[in-house]
């Protein structure tokens, strides 16, 4: 196809509230030698996009200043050194930025095929959270069958990825939620049990549910006072993975309890990882998880859609914390597609 001279994208006019997300017209990106150019059907909305919009998460110097860390769509151009894909392939991709747009250039190592049976809109909500959880829970913390994993924010994007990765691996996810409705959702997508943090003691419930063993792994995006709760809920030899600090970047950590239980606490952010690391994560997802996602009875995470131009409304919805699963922005191309 002939590429257009300009496209719609969503820019951050100035740091601030959702209204600063502004539709603009600009030239499509030019793919580098190892990139593919994707005509975007849909772009997932993620917690880090909110932080970037507020001015708290600057993009790396070589990345697009536009928000958007994941997309699904169709490949329309390839750099000379881009390997493994052809023009016309329907793909999903982890972007380095720039996903809130009608076209985005992505290193080919961060691109994956869309699982059989998934629409482009459904697939657009997978990469950012599945890359994050694969890198931390699977590759760093060695998730194994039979482990119990405490998953905070179970009904959100990261939480849903953690629950589903546990179910593929044969681990048991205990999801922390704030309502009965979110608890039902977490069970639908594969959680073994749920804890309502508004009325239950998290550490006590984990011990009850595991017969006093505790959680072998914890995926935490809350931080603050939960640091001590995570330690109290952990099994001997456990590993707590800090992927965000929504309630507080600083915490009082009971070090003796950590020592007594042989615990590891590690933190990570995906975006600044090297292209080689992101490509290695993609390969792990392709080999270990894509086959399960393509099975006909797989329960896909819930997706709520917004037109690309209404990105501000999607951010406001995410900030309200009413959503379950993923929020996804759909372009004119995505809206016109036969979706499965
Ligand atoms: N480290 C990384 O590489 C990485 C990658 C992706 C995302 N993240 C971070 O992970 C966090 C979650 O991202 P997401 O896309 O999963 O977001 P999300 O879909 O909004 O999910 C967040 C979940 O956490 C729960 N939560 C508990 N305490 C919260 C609080 N104080 N503020 C907001 N939510 C709270 C919310 O449900 P309830 O309030 O109902 O419990 C919600 O279900 C974000 O901070 C994001 O920046 C980190």
Automatic annotation (TrEMBL):
Ranges of residues in domain Enoyl reductase (ER): 16-329
Pfam families, per database record: ADH_N, ADH_zinc_N
UniProt xrefs under SUPFAM superfamilies: GroES-like, NAD(P)-binding Rossmann-fold domains
Record-linked InterPro entries: ADH-like_C, ADH-like_N, ER, GroES-like_sf, NAD(P)-bd_dom_sf, Quin_OxRdtase/zeta-crystal_CS, Quinone_OxRdtase_PIG3
Transmembrane segments: none
Keywords: NADP, Oxidoreductase
Record PANTHER family: OS02G0805600 PROTEIN (PTHR48106:SF8), QUINONE OXIDOREDUCTASE PIG3-RELATED (PTHR48106)
Name of the featured protein: NAD(P)H-quinone oxidoreductase
């Amino acid at each position: 196809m002939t590429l257009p001279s300009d496209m719609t994208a969503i820019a951050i006019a100035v740091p601030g509230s959702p209204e600063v997300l502004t539709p603009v017209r600009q030239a499509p990106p030019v793919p580098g030698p190892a990139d593919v150019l994707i005509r975007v059907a849909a772009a997932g909305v993620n917690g880090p996009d909110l932080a970037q919009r507020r001015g708290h998460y600057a993009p790396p110097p070589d990345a697009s200043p536009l928000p958007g860390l994941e997309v699904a769509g169709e490949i329309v151009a390839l750099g000379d050194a881009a390997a493994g894909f052809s023009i016309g392939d329907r793909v999903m991709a982890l972007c380095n930025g720039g996903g809130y747009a009608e076209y985005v250039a992505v290193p080919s190592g961060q691109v994956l095929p869309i699982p059989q049976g998934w629409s482009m809109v459904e697939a657009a909500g997978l990469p950012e959270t599945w890359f994050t959880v694969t890198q931390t829970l699977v590759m760093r913390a060695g998730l194994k069958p039979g482990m119990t994993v405490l998953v905070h924010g179970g009904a959100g994007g990261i939480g849903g990825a953690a629950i589903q990765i546990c179910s593929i691996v044969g681990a048991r996810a205990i999801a922390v939620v704030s309502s009965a409705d979110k608890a039902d959702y977490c069970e639908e997508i594969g959680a073994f049990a749920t804890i309502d943090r508004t009325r239950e003691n998290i550490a006590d419930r984990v011990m009850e549910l595991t017969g006093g063993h505790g959680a072998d792994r914890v995926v935490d995006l809350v931080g603050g006072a939960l640091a001590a709760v995570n330690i109290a809920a952990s099994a001997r030899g456990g590993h707590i993975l800090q992927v965000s600090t929504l309630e507080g970047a600083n915490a009082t950590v009971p070090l003796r309890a950590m020592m007594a239980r042989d615990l590891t606490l590690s933190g990570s952010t995906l975006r600044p990882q090297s292209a080689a690391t992101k490509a290695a994560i993609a390969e792990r997802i392709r080999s270990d998880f894509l086959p399960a996602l393509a099975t006909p009875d797989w329960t896909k995470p819930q997706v709520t859609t917004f037109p690309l131009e209404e990105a501000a409304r999607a951010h406001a919805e995410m900030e309200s914390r009413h959503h379950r699963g993923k929020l996804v922005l759909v372009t004119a191309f995505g809206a016109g597609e036969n979706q499965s």
